[in-house]
Amino acid sequence: MPNLIYIADPMCSWCYGFGPELTALLDGLPGLPVEIVLGGLRAYNSERMDESMKAELMTHWEKVHETSGLPFSDHAIEQPGFIYNTEPACRAVVAARTLAPQATLAVFNAIQQAFYVDGRDVTRSTVLADIASAALTAAGIPTGAGAFETLWASEKIVLATHADFVQTKAWKISGFPMLVLERNGHLDMVTSGYLRMPALVEQLQALVDSGPRD
Question: Is the overall model pTM greater than 0.85, yes or no?
Answer without folding.
Answer: yes
